[in-house]
Amino acid sequence: ESSAACEVCEGAEEMTEPLKQCTAWLHAYFCEPARMASLPVPAFHHPLLRRDSFTRQVLWTLLRDVKFGEAVSYKQLADLAGNSRAARAVGGAMRSNPIPIIIPCHRVICSSGQTGNYGGGNLMKEWLLSHEKLQKEKLAY
Question: Which domains, from first to last, does the chain contain?
Fold first, then answer.
């Protein structure tokens, strides 16, 4: 756990509203997870998240249903997204996630319990999962 203070860079007053929402959300994720539930999810304008597809369904399901400090297998996420036989397609959706951390693809793990792959590297995935587990334990007290 880092002892560094969380801070927003200079010029925050010049940010657009969507960027302010993202900054607030990421600050809460890393520094004040208890606040995350009360923050709006930033607006997403990426084309992948606008067209009707299984990838979009998977990403929105992950964002909506897999909470901070939880993990889900590729197969479980396929079930939640409405196609129990699409675990491999869920892996493809995770690879194409345009906004990792906000859409928490690091929370998707193998059925065996192994972490699986992550675009930011497996060490980063393990760190994010550990961060969430530690913060969730702190919130429980």
Answer: 15-43 (no CATH), 45-132 (1.10.10.10)
